[in-house]
Design a protein that fits this description.
Structural class: alpha+beta
Radius of gyration: 20 Å
Distance between the termini: 55 Å
Helix content: 10-25%
Strand order of the largest sheet: 1-2-3-4-5-6-7-8
Shape: elongated
Number of helices: 2
Order of helices and strands: HEHEEEEEEE
Oligomer: single chain
Protein backbone atom coordinates (compact mmCIF):
# COMPACT_ATOMS: atom_id res chain seq x y z
CA UNK A 1 0.00 0.00 0.00
CA UNK A 2 1.28 3.50 -0.86
CA UNK A 3 0.81 6.10 1.86
CA UNK A 4 1.65 9.82 1.85
CA UNK A 5 2.64 11.35 5.19
CA UNK A 6 -0.16 13.52 6.51
CA UNK A 7 0.74 16.57 8.65
CA UNK A 8 -2.87 17.67 9.17
CA UNK A 9 -3.42 18.31 12.92
CA UNK A 10 -6.86 16.70 12.56
CA UNK A 11 -5.05 13.43 11.89
CA UNK A 12 -3.24 13.74 15.23
CA UNK A 13 -6.58 14.25 16.98
CA UNK A 14 -7.99 11.19 15.24
CA UNK A 15 -5.05 9.07 16.41
CA UNK A 16 -5.39 10.36 19.99
CA UNK A 17 -9.11 9.61 19.99
CA UNK A 18 -8.50 6.13 18.64
CA UNK A 19 -5.82 5.39 21.25
CA UNK A 20 -8.16 6.57 24.00
CA UNK A 21 -10.94 4.32 22.67
CA UNK A 22 -8.55 1.34 22.53
CA UNK A 23 -7.42 1.93 26.12
CA UNK A 24 -11.02 2.20 27.35
CA UNK A 25 -11.98 -0.99 25.49
CA UNK A 26 -9.00 -2.84 26.96
CA UNK A 27 -9.90 -1.70 30.47
CA UNK A 28 -13.47 -2.96 29.99
CA UNK A 29 -12.15 -6.33 28.80
CA UNK A 30 -9.77 -6.57 31.75
CA UNK A 31 -12.58 -5.80 34.21
CA UNK A 32 -14.61 -8.64 32.70
CA UNK A 33 -11.66 -11.05 33.03
CA UNK A 34 -11.05 -10.03 36.64
CA UNK A 35 -14.76 -10.43 37.45
CA UNK A 36 -14.78 -13.94 35.98
CA UNK A 37 -11.62 -14.88 37.89
CA UNK A 38 -13.07 -13.48 41.14
CA UNK A 39 -16.32 -15.42 40.70
CA UNK A 40 -14.44 -18.61 39.95
CA UNK A 41 -12.21 -18.11 42.98
CA UNK A 42 -15.28 -17.70 45.20
CA UNK A 43 -17.00 -20.71 43.69
CA UNK A 44 -13.96 -22.94 43.96
CA UNK A 45 -12.88 -21.82 47.41
CA UNK A 46 -14.50 -24.89 48.91
CA UNK A 47 -12.96 -27.27 46.39
CA UNK A 48 -11.15 -30.36 47.60
CA UNK A 49 -7.72 -29.65 49.11
CA UNK A 50 -4.82 -29.69 46.66
CA UNK A 51 -7.27 -29.45 43.71
CA UNK A 52 -7.35 -25.68 43.39
CA UNK A 53 -4.43 -23.30 42.77
CA UNK A 54 -3.57 -19.69 41.98
CA UNK A 55 -0.51 -19.06 39.81
CA UNK A 56 1.53 -16.51 37.89
CA UNK A 57 4.03 -16.86 35.01
CA UNK A 58 7.40 -15.29 35.88
CA UNK A 59 8.37 -14.97 32.19
CA UNK A 60 5.59 -12.42 31.62
CA UNK A 61 6.70 -10.44 34.66
CA UNK A 62 10.18 -10.25 33.08
CA UNK A 63 8.64 -7.97 30.42
CA UNK A 64 6.39 -6.20 32.97
CA UNK A 65 3.22 -7.92 31.82
CA UNK A 66 0.89 -8.61 34.79
CA UNK A 67 -0.70 -12.04 34.65
CA UNK A 68 -2.68 -14.42 36.81
CA UNK A 69 -4.13 -17.90 36.48
CA UNK A 70 -6.23 -20.41 38.35
CA UNK A 71 -6.29 -24.18 38.05
CA UNK A 72 -8.76 -26.66 39.49
CA UNK A 73 -9.49 -30.35 39.31
CA UNK A 74 -12.15 -31.64 36.92
CA UNK A 75 -11.43 -35.36 37.28
CA UNK A 76 -9.12 -37.89 38.84
CA UNK A 77 -6.13 -36.97 36.66
CA UNK A 78 -7.43 -33.85 34.91
CA UNK A 79 -7.40 -30.14 35.68
CA UNK A 80 -8.59 -26.97 33.98
CA UNK A 81 -6.14 -24.07 33.76
CA UNK A 82 -7.42 -20.53 33.05
CA UNK A 83 -4.76 -17.84 32.61
CA UNK A 84 -4.76 -14.25 31.43
CA UNK A 85 -2.27 -11.49 30.66
CA UNK A 86 -2.87 -7.75 30.51
CA UNK A 87 -0.17 -5.27 29.45
CA UNK A 88 -1.67 -1.80 28.86
CA UNK A 89 1.59 0.10 28.39
CA UNK A 90 4.62 0.40 26.10
CA UNK A 91 8.12 0.62 27.52
CA UNK A 92 9.75 1.60 24.21
CA UNK A 93 8.74 3.36 20.98
CA UNK A 94 9.69 0.30 18.91
CA UNK A 95 9.76 -3.49 19.39
CA UNK A 96 7.10 -3.44 22.10
CA UNK A 97 3.38 -4.09 22.43
CA UNK A 98 0.23 -3.48 24.44
CA UNK A 99 -2.01 -6.52 24.69
CA UNK A 100 -4.43 -8.74 26.55
CA UNK A 101 -4.33 -12.52 26.20
CA UNK A 102 -6.50 -15.36 27.51
CA UNK A 103 -5.43 -19.03 27.38
CA UNK A 104 -7.68 -21.78 28.79
CA UNK A 105 -6.15 -25.25 28.91
CA UNK A 106 -7.36 -28.77 29.77
CA UNK A 107 -4.58 -30.90 31.32
CA UNK A 108 -4.02 -34.61 31.85
CA UNK A 109 -1.55 -35.58 34.61
CA UNK A 110 0.36 -38.86 34.31
CA UNK A 111 0.65 -39.25 38.08
CA UNK A 112 -1.80 -36.99 39.92
CA UNK A 113 -2.82 -33.32 39.64
CA UNK A 114 -0.10 -30.77 40.44
CA UNK A 115 2.68 -33.33 40.49
CA UNK A 116 5.06 -34.49 37.76
CA UNK A 117 4.44 -34.72 34.02
CA UNK A 118 1.32 -33.45 32.24
CA UNK A 119 -0.01 -32.91 28.73
CA UNK A 120 -2.55 -30.29 27.75
CA UNK A 121 -4.74 -28.89 24.99
CA UNK A 122 -5.09 -25.11 24.99
CA UNK A 123 -6.91 -22.30 23.20
CA UNK A 124 -5.82 -18.69 22.97
CA UNK A 125 -7.33 -15.34 22.06
CA UNK A 126 -5.70 -11.92 22.19
CA UNK A 127 -5.88 -8.29 21.11
CA UNK A 128 -2.64 -6.39 20.49
CA UNK A 129 -1.26 -3.01 19.46
CA UNK A 130 2.39 -3.64 18.61
CA UNK A 131 5.35 -1.60 17.37
CA UNK A 132 7.96 -3.52 15.36
CA UNK A 133 10.49 -2.35 12.75
CA UNK A 134 8.95 1.13 12.55
CA UNK A 135 5.51 -0.33 11.82
CA UNK A 136 2.34 -0.59 13.89
CA UNK A 137 0.23 -3.76 14.03
CA UNK A 138 -3.28 -3.33 15.45
CA UNK A 139 -5.29 -6.52 15.57
CA UNK A 140 -6.41 -9.81 17.06
CA UNK A 141 -5.40 -13.48 17.12
CA UNK A 142 -7.10 -16.78 17.93
CA UNK A 143 -6.08 -20.42 17.80
CA UNK A 144 -4.99 -23.42 19.84
CA UNK A 145 -2.28 -25.96 20.48
CA UNK A 146 -0.85 -28.74 22.64
CA UNK A 147 1.31 -28.46 25.75
CA UNK A 148 3.84 -30.52 27.69
CA UNK A 149 4.95 -29.57 31.18
CA UNK A 150 6.34 -30.68 34.52
CA UNK A 151 5.39 -29.63 38.05
CA UNK A 152 7.86 -29.69 40.96
CA UNK A 153 6.58 -29.76 44.55
CA UNK A 154 8.50 -27.21 46.61
CA UNK A 155 6.44 -27.39 49.81
CA UNK A 156 2.93 -28.45 50.90
CA UNK A 157 1.48 -25.30 49.27
CA UNK A 158 4.07 -24.10 46.72
CA UNK A 159 4.94 -25.59 43.33
CA UNK A 160 7.13 -24.62 40.39
CA UNK A 161 5.87 -25.43 36.91
CA UNK A 162 7.62 -25.35 33.53
CA UNK A 163 5.86 -25.89 30.21
CA UNK A 164 6.06 -25.35 26.47
CA UNK A 165 3.27 -25.40 23.91
CA UNK A 166 3.11 -25.47 20.12
CA UNK A 167 0.16 -24.83 17.87
CA UNK A 168 -1.62 -22.52 15.46
CA UNK A 169 -2.85 -18.93 15.52
CA UNK A 170 -4.83 -16.93 12.99
CA UNK A 171 -3.90 -13.24 13.01
CA UNK A 172 -5.85 -10.39 11.46
CA UNK A 173 -4.66 -6.81 11.84
CA UNK A 174 -4.19 -3.34 10.42
CA UNK A 175 -0.60 -2.51 9.49
CA UNK A 176 0.69 1.02 9.02
CA UNK A 177 3.92 3.02 9.32
CA UNK A 178 4.76 4.40 12.77
CA UNK A 179 3.69 7.87 11.66
CA UNK A 180 0.92 10.30 12.75
CA UNK A 181 -1.47 9.17 10.01
CA UNK A 182 -4.64 7.32 10.98
CA UNK A 183 -5.62 6.52 7.35
CA UNK A 184 -2.27 5.03 6.28
CA UNK A 185 -3.03 1.37 6.91
CA UNK A 186 -3.65 -1.89 5.09
CA UNK A 187 -5.71 -4.86 6.30
CA UNK A 188 -3.75 -8.13 6.54
CA UNK A 189 -4.12 -11.70 7.78
CA UNK A 190 -1.55 -14.37 8.62
CA UNK A 191 -1.42 -18.02 9.67
CA UNK A 192 1.14 -18.83 12.37
CA UNK A 193 2.51 -22.26 13.30
CA UNK A 194 5.04 -22.62 16.09
CA UNK A 195 5.48 -22.05 19.84
CA UNK A 196 2.25 -20.74 21.36
CA UNK A 197 2.97 -21.08 25.08
CA UNK A 198 6.02 -20.85 27.34
CA UNK A 199 5.93 -20.59 31.12
CA UNK A 200 7.92 -20.84 34.31
CA UNK A 201 5.09 -20.57 36.78
CA UNK A 202 4.95 -20.17 40.54
CA UNK A 203 1.85 -21.89 41.98
CA UNK A 204 0.12 -21.69 45.34
CA UNK A 205 -2.15 -24.64 46.17
CA UNK A 206 -5.10 -24.53 48.57
Amino acid sequence: MICIFNTDPCCDHAISDRLAENIQANLRNMRKVLLIVTLLCGFLHTAEAQHFAIKTNSLYWAVLAPNVGIEFGVGRNMTMDLSGVYKPWNLRNDNDARLWLVQPELRYWLCEPFEGHFFGVHLHGAQYYAYFNQKIYDGYLAGGGITYGYDWILSPHWNLEALIGIGYARLWYKQRPNLPCAKCFSNKTENYFGPTKLALTVTYLF
